[in-house]
Amino acid sequence: MNRNGEEEVAEKRRRRRREGVQVSLRGGCLAASATAIAVMLMATEKGVADIYGLPLPLNSSWSFSPSYQYVVGACTVTILYSLLHLCLGIYRLLTGSPITPSRSQAWLCFIFDQLFSYLIMSAGSAGIGVTNLNKTGIKHTPLPDFCKTLSYFCNHVALSLLLVLLSFIFLASSSLFNVHVLSTL
């Protein structure tokens, strides 16, 4: 095999490796978002808190908080986006065509990765604020932290938000990878 043929084969391997990284980032985002939704949907608990000697029944669910509803909605949209890209990437890998065939498609992937990264990060931030309030209580009122009584609920929400942030990391990494793809096209 001549020198040009070896370089062509090496370039083809590098391109396939890059495309494999793109597909694995999409798969990671899909898995993290789907697991975050599953854990959040299981976050329900009932308990009794003692405030000034009076028993106060507590019932908590993710659907009671608009911030947690936003997390579930953002994760749902991110799952659909990641699933679409994952299916498209796997199809193109199997057919041998490039995952990002043109500069304009690379720009679209970059823009949408950024958009969904910001969406999932804002949802995670909103959820973290409510979770922190549940954990620390309200300092200027006699309301205690609810996580002492509702630890199962708080632990599930915290795990879900951790997975949301992991999903953000996958999306941000995919966005950075699209910058690399744009620089090589």
TrEMBL record:
Q: Which UniProt keywords apply?
A: Cell membrane, Membrane, Transmembrane, Transmembrane helix
Query: Could you tell me the superkingdom of the organism this chain comes from?
Result: Eukaryota
| Keyword Metal-binding attributed | no
Q: Where are the transmembrane segments?
A: 23-43, 68-94, 106-130, 150-172
Q: What is its main location?
A: membrane
What InterPro entries does the annotation carry?
Answer: CASP/CASPL, CASP_dom
The chain positions of domain Casparian strip membrane protein read: 16-170
Q: Does the keyword Transferase apply?
A: no
According to Swiss-Prot or TrEMBL, what is its membrane topology? Multi-pass membrane protein
Q: Spell out the subcellular localization from the entry.
A: Cell membrane
Q: Which family does it belong to?
A: Belongs to the Casparian strip membrane proteins (CASP) family.
In terms of PANTHER family, this protein maps to: CASP-LIKE PROTEIN 3A2 (PTHR33573:SF39), CASP-LIKE PROTEIN 4A4 (PTHR33573)
* Summary of subunit composition and partner proteins: Homodimer and heterodimers.
Family annotation (NCBIfam families): A_tha_TIGR01569
Q: What is this protein called?
A: CASP-like protein
Which species? Brassica rapa subsp. trilocularis
Q: Which gene encodes it?
A: A07p032730.1_BraROA
